[in-house]
Structures
1.
Amino acid sequence: MTSLTLFEPDLDEVGPVTSSSGGLAPAEVASTAALESFRATKHKSLNFGLGVDSTALTLAIINDPAAFGIAKDFSDFSIVTAMTGFEFPDTIADVENHVLPLLREKGIRYTQVARAGRPDSAGVEVLSDTTNPGKVFSRGPWTLMDEMEENGTVPQYAGGHACSQKHKAFSIERLQLQRSGGQTVGKLFGYNADEHPRAVKANKFQTIRNKKAGYETFALDYPLLRLGWGREDVQGYVKDRLGIDMAKSYCPVCPFSGVCSPQPDHLKRLRKYPDLAARVLRLEYLAMALNDNMSLYKEDTLFSRVTDDQNTEALGQFNARLDEETWAVYRLRRAYTPGRRPECKTAHGDRCTKPECRDSSIKGTVYRSVETVRTGSRTEVGAFLHNAASALNRPVEHSTKAHGVGIDRVHTRVRPDSKTYGTVEDFYVTAPAGVQDKARDGFAGVWAALTAGQ
């Protein structure tokens, strides 16, 4: 896969542009050189994320395409959306009712794509490609929630926007590179002027990717940054043009939802769509059954926030799902390897396997194996776990400390200290079924080495 190309800053060519919200269009992502590179491309495209920022940019382009370096008849321009498969219905409704009619009126090509399967080798499926769009196809063959539920994990802060890269950037890039025939593609992003760090981060990583690829695949422009339009500006512009208060688009399972949308607004949305809230609550419970630290948010759980918000409908649907669906007994094994000492990295470079270079107080790689031992109703797998505990002469640990609903586990190996590495843990746990049996590459060897003689 070829990645996005961003440009080195040309600080002398552009000064700060202020907006009514006080935002800036920083030179390092809004240089004249970058703008000229974009305008020189024959294939120009907008990554349309369905939310208020990219909608504002779409409206501005429709109003005056030449100001953005786009042909007046839009013959060199297209709009592309990558579907994660888990959007709020009001987002889809706003786009269908207010944005698609404008695209039809102007004859703007609009393409909707999605991952065709879990592995990259499955490629991309085009859900719609037309200048007369009438429907937002909310999901493709393989969705973000499909992946999360099979993995038994929630999206992680530590991974940044990895899920977005996999379910959005991958699909769009594959499509655009195929269309371009090897030519540079001009790409517009709707980062607003309050989101400058996102563009800076993208520049940093893309410079590395670009150097590795040896050529320029995409010429990027951030018009909202260049114009100095902050969040209040884009919201006001969309309200003036469409007459609606459009929300920012994000997945209900996003761990950054407190950033993507103010938390009170997010909780209000979950009250409006309790079925979506219940699905995310179910995923969080599953993830935390496999790992106490796998809550949706850094410092607390979605369950606690929804409970505090007294969203009884979402909680009722969540509890009903737990009672009605198939459950499993999983066996979880983790091997926590010690990390490399700083001086080792300096002396021995990127790789070193010498035991003396490891420090048990430094976290290394964590190797996980998950296996489904038994499936059945919630009652059946609970009884199986208790019988197994008796056979193993181990207690069933019922804990509500991590999650309010409570999690039942039977440990056969317990880590002596959560901050000591070179250790293992092994336990059985009951949770909703569906997690695929999987072990990290190299797990068997690492497990054998750390448990030798035990």
Note: The radius of gyration is 25 Å.
2.
Amino acid sequence: MRFEHESLAQRVRFASGEAAALVRAEVERLGASRVMVIAAAAEAELAQTVTAGLPVVLRWDEVVMHVPIEVAERARDAAAVCQADLLLSVGGGSTTGLAKAIALTGGLPIVAVPTTYAGSEATSVWGLTEQARKTTGVDVRVLPRSVVYDATLTVSLPVPMSVASGLNALAHCVDAMWGPRVDPIDQALAGEGIRALAAGLPAVVADPAGLPGREQTLYGTYLSAVAFSSAGSGLHHKICHVLGGMYDLPHAQTHAVVLPHVLAFNAPAAPETERRIAAAFGAGSAIDGLERLRRDVDAPRALRDYGLKETDAEDAVQAVLDVVPDGNPRPVTAEDIRRLLRAAWRGADPRTMTDDSTTTNSTTTNSMTRRTHGD
């Protein structure tokens, strides 16, 4: 065994019902006196509660999915004008992503308080969208210095959005299993993340107000993000970033739909990794475990339910092919991407990706309300 692994420096506080106290402690520890709070309008009341008593100089609520560059620039200017010395994000991936965009150029420390299962808070990955193209990168400056996990803050997230967001976290785990920089530590973290998410999400569906399922899902989310940040972005995330940037698709639902198709495509070419994923699900095969979970939680099924046109899927083929990561378990052709996107668009049986057949079986599709804070 020979590998190189780098762990990121980040403080994590995990305690249900203690967000306000933990946030205050982290702000004081970092010596901040001019806090810029970033929270979408829908999270304003929650953010007020979490940040009570802090030296807040600005509350910023312009939060947009996929972080358009013009939104980032306005927020950067506002942070400079108010002379903020710390960014406090309260919300989902779009909110954390905006804080990262500010930190990328301004170098300000971030304290992140997640209200979804996006996982962005535990990675050094940033993303910006300009002219319908999403660009991502890695920079230690955007890694939040502290993360405060409080499962009570996720209880208001509706079950459908909780499912989509949790499956987004699961996609981090699966991509980490064969990411371009993957190592055994990444795989160990991702495997435990899969186990926790597979246990937590059905519990959230069965008891939305209960904390045990929410805590397991948050725990799995953190593990998934740490594994993903180290292993790097695999084929699944490259596809979803292209679709999100080009067509402004809802982030979490896009990941939830695309994931089984990429898993079914890659798994036959990585049998040892496939067995590890299957074991984490407690299933005979990786795809069987994922499909069982998706069935139990009534997962999103088809990209057409979220605004993607059939012609859009065809137009995205080359853009995806251009960013296929090195070291994907199997070679990827334009026809492979075409079949995968068509299957995800219509909600086909993902098992069709394991062979060369272009015939797909339609399944019942599931529509959900688009919510920015679920990203």
Note: Confidence is low (pLDDT under 50) at residues 356-375.
3.
Amino acid sequence: MEEERGHRDGPPQWWRYGPPWRSGPSWSSGLPPWRDRARERRWPWPSTALLTAMVLAGSRFAAHAQQGERVQPDAFARVLLLLAGVLLLWRWRFPVAVVFGTAAVTAVYLGAGYPYGPVLLTVAVACFSAVVAGHRRAAWSAVGMLWAAHVLVAHWLYRWLPPRGDGPAPYAQEIAVAAWVAAIVAVSELARARSEQWARERAERAQAARRRADEERLRIARELHDVLAHSISVINVQAGMGLALLDTDPEQARTALATIKAKSKEALGEVRQVLDTLRAPGDAPRAPAPGLDRLPELVEQAAVAGLTVHVEGAARRLPPGADLAAFRIVQEALTNVVRHSGSRQACVHIEERDGALRLRVDDDGPPTGADAGGSGNGLAGMRERAAALGGTIEAGPRPDGGFRVLAVLPLENARIREEEW
């Protein structure tokens, strides 16, 4: 059925792209990766018409130059020249058939004793197209067939072929023909190598662009998670407090509602800042990315949620990437304390040692098992941030009770990454 359908719909695939036993890589689609499919749907009319005109006109001048040595072109010669040129119209669609066709027409033309000349250009163009398309063995075979036919005619069949009284061709002429064939193949192979190189470069650029897009999406997702998780956790705690105190202590409930309003406004501002990165390239962000210099704000926000935070140590000026990662890791760790710990106290320890920034967040309370609306991606997000800088995150229960998050961020890796960006 497949074979019948192939013949009904058109020529089989191997007629267009070469037989299945041809040399070169095997691609599932039958086309090499550097082939331009849109180009194959077009017809090269202008270049083919120009080349055919050059072959017809040039052959007349060659005939005058070789008068008395070769047969003067007649109607049959002009038909052969026109046929060799017209075959090139299909060189993008059926490169294998075209290279063999032009080689066969040229062999008949030379065998009939017509003058040497521009007709050989049609073989050169067909060979070039076949090699660039990936059909190397077919192109070599066609050109080799033409050369073998020329040797056969020039040294054996010349006795029975025109022009009459012709003798064997000198072997120096065969060396010249062989050099011409080698030049065609060399130029074609060079063009093919360049096509492959350009295809690889395009694929690498496309892959790098996809990788950068994936990294950017992941970065934005982490930023949104960290911003919203912290803010929503504080809002959740304050909303619960406001509901509990609405009847018994309206003033305290009003304070909780004011905190919710301020925190939601702040969260919206940070979300806008994150989404600003999706604007047109070249636009600068409206506000600097947060860093450890905003740690006092985290302490105040935690205090509003009922968590007392002690900060120990400090870090000198950090690369922007490491500074942002450190801030978000501390923010997420304190958010988890608010959500999941029964302790109302936490300690943040900051230390810069051996070319790395060490962050430790401890709390003393047992887990409450409560859910404050988190997505469960907090620890995963912290690990992704640390891994992006070549660092690590350790999180788990402490031997003496409570929970600990320990982050180690290599600063040298962060500086290198900033320079690359």
Note: Residues 273 and 286 are 7 Å apart (CA to CA).
4.
Amino acid sequence: MSSTIESAEHKTLRTAVAALGQRYGREYLARVAREGGHPDELWADAAKLGYLGVNLPEEYGGGGGGIAELSIVLEELGAAGCPLLMMVVSPAICGTVIARFGTDEQKRTWLPGLADGSRTMAFGITEPDAGSNSHRITTTARRDGDDWILTGRKVFISGVDIADATLIVGRAEDARTGRLKPCLFIVPRDTPGFGRSVIDMELQAAEKQFELTLDEVRLPSSALVGDEDAGLLQLFAGLNPERIMTAAFAIGMGRYALARAVDYAKTRQVWKEPIGAHQAVAHPLAQAHIELELARLMTQKAAALYDAGDDMGAGEAANMAKYAAGEACVRAVDQSVHTLGGNGLTREYGLGSLITASRVARIAPVSREMILNFVSHQTLGLPKSY
């Protein structure tokens, strides 16, 4: 079936996940974040229902679906006000990379736990001095007998405190060319030399952000994921799902904010009619809805391409989906807050904090400007400036 028309199975999945989300909602997630905790109850319930591992292979306890199904789960939880950010990282990036490229031992060790939610994994690519330029990654991996030694730093890495391991992107020297090539390594949380410090974020979220230090971290050869000569392919196999899931995250957040604003506009009355009857209020909300729906279409296309094995096609579509969703989310949140006026900034209505949160979709995991670079170079064939 065309990815533009949702299947009956996908509709059923949406309805079921929405029901779970409604049992928890925004107040649950806000309370967990305020108390410095983690959404363990929601994570456990989502896992028990099979939602967290819906994209992972059935032989390892997953649902045998793809990123299309996993993105539906995240979007619907987000629309209910309780998105699980670690879904982007643990099953979508790390689970996908291990399922596609991991050794049999790595699959047996990690996939059942990632599928049933009993184990989680973080993902470490961003560095303080590299920013959007992943070619400047300085975390190096060098051979020492059969072992690997990792040295470097990472920044803005989500959930390292609760993750059993972090999938670290390092660079190893190519024996033939002498040039550095990307490689992926599984680094367990308690590995000697693997340090972390929390970053004090303005954004209040259940998932904390960390700076990591890798000080001569010694790993066995079994820590290397897949083929050291195919690191770039493996890396992009994880980055495309990350963009698709970030799009789903943004669409869910935008839908949540818009629903609150629509409810308010239907009942808030300061003149004869509810404020939603005024076109200056109604039209921007209608526009926000249209933009969110368009972003979801591109997200569905990207997921369908990725799940069909078209990595190149998925790369373009995933970038476009993430761009469209980020823009739509920011505008939906902004208009929703504006619709509520002063109430949009109160804790009672819970929209004010989304002003900061919605910006995440524009910035991470890749900025809107870098996506525009990708489209101008890769799609339109325009020359590079860097």
Note: Residues 111 and 213 are 26 Å apart (CA to CA).
